[in-house]
Design brief:
Low-confidence stretches: none
Order of helices and strands: HEHHEHHEEEHEHEEEEEHEEEEEH
Oligomer: single chain
Strand content: 15-25%
CATH class: Mainly Beta
CATH architecture: Sandwich
Shape: globular
CATH superfamily: B-lactam Antibiotic, Isopenicillin N Synthase, Chain
Distance between the termini: 33 Å
Number of domains: 1
Structural class: alpha+beta
CATH topology: Jelly Rolls
Number of strands: 16
Helix content: 25-40%
Mean pLDDT: 94
Number of helices: 9
């Protein structure tokens, strides 16, 4: 019943769970004839070669580009980031393989459950949340699902349905992990904060690497009015999302409350900020609203849509505090796990939240 209602719901019905200010109101699913679109707005492109090869001046220029993008809509497109586009092509094939060549029974052995702050494991279609029947299968892998730190007791079979997936996706995670500090340092530099303030917190930090498999859209799916993924804001510092080959990502422009159909060049990375970032920046950088809807062209309805975003967190015991130089703090310091689980209990149920008194 909750999910049926969720097709017609607006985000403000779940406002009590939010831990940062969110005044915008929007439908969780696209509403034909009701939602307005901004076809002229272009998400800013930021050239990471400035950071990597431009010296001190280049780093300042990249920080300015990134800050300008994030302070506005909270989304940016990163180019010249150094990740081989061929790795993304292979990742799309591997993601399809993990969902198309395993049985539901095999996948359900890894059914998602909470570990620390994050619900980790496999989410069947229409079960990503309890409030909206998302037309996507998902699989969340956090740091412990990869043999990144050379642990002798690591077992691939504890997290992956078949051998071979972990070594491949580990390569992709390592490539994205090396982008974390450049992105965070640039954001802090633009805020006139010590750019190395988060270096230690972001070294071998936790993350949520999610494989999304949106099956072809059927006539029944289309008739329900449900979206491929509900409108939401990410619960993280920022999300690293390689550009997808099938469209559908929509971004809400808070200035005019119109949706933008985001189209990023092949091989680029879409970057967006989340709740952790809005909290520590005292609302300077917004937690950005987005959703996945049907492709604009019906010719793509018969194709699966695949994405593999990486959400960047900190470990559960870290304290989130408002940064200096961002004005009078609107938010009290809070433990990361408390902050994270209070928000995500809207997706998983009220008993998911964990207070500081129950460490």
């Amino acid at each position: 019943m909750k999910q049926e209602k969720g097709i017609g719901a607006v985000n403000q019905e779940f406002k009590k769970y939010e831990q940062v200010e969110k005044n915008q109101s929007y439908h969780l699913s696209e509403k034909d004839g009701e939602d307005k679109f901004d076809d002229d707005y272009k998400i800013k492109t930021c050239d990471m070669s400035l950071y990597f090869r431009g010296g001190e001046q280049g780093r300042k220029e990249f920080a300015q580009q990134l800050g300008a993008a994030m302070r506005g809509i909270g989304f940016a497109i990163l180019t010249n980031h150094g990740v081989d586009p061929a790795l993304y092509d292979e990742a799309e094939k591997k993601t399809a393989e993990i969902f198309e060549t395993t049985t539901r029974e095999e996948r359900m052995k890894f059914h998602a459950k909470r570990f620390g702050s994050v619900n980790q494991g496999y989410f069947p279609i229409k079960e990503t949340t309890i409030i909206h029947p998302d037309l996507v299968e998902g699989w969340v892998f956090c740091r412990r699902a990869f043999n990144l730190d050379g642990k002798l007791d690591f077992k691939e079979s504890d997290y992956w349905p078949r051998p071979g997936f972990e070594p491949f996706f580990r390569k992709l995670v390592i490539e994205h992990e090396r982008l974390i500090l450049p992105i965070m340092q640039s954001i802090l530099l633009n805020l006139n904060v010590d750019p190395h303030l988060y270096d230690k917190k972001f070294s071998k930090t936790n993350f949520g690497f999610r494989l999304n498999y949106y099956p072809p859209i059927t006539a029944e799916d289309e008739s329900t009015g449900g979206g491929r993924m509900l409108g939401h804001e990410d619960v993280d510092f920022f999300t690293i999302l390689p550009a997808q080959s099938v469209d559908g990502l929509q971004v809400l422009n808070h200035e005019n409350m119109k949706w933008i159909r985001l189209e990023a060049p092949k091989g680029s990375i879409v970057l967006n900020t989340g709740d952790y970032m809005q909290r520590i920046t005292n609302d300077v950088l917004p937690s950005t609203t987005h959703r996945v809807s049907k492709p604009k062209s019906r010719s793509q309805f018969g194709k699966p849509r695949i994405s593999f975003p990486m959400a960047v967190y900190v470990w559960e015991d870290e304290i989130l505090e408002v940064l200096p130089n961002t004005g009078v703090p609107k938010y009290e310091p809070v433990r990361a796990e408390t902050f994270h689980t209070k928000i995500t209990s809207k997706y998983y149920g009220d008993d998911y939240a964990k207070s500081d008194s129950t460490k």
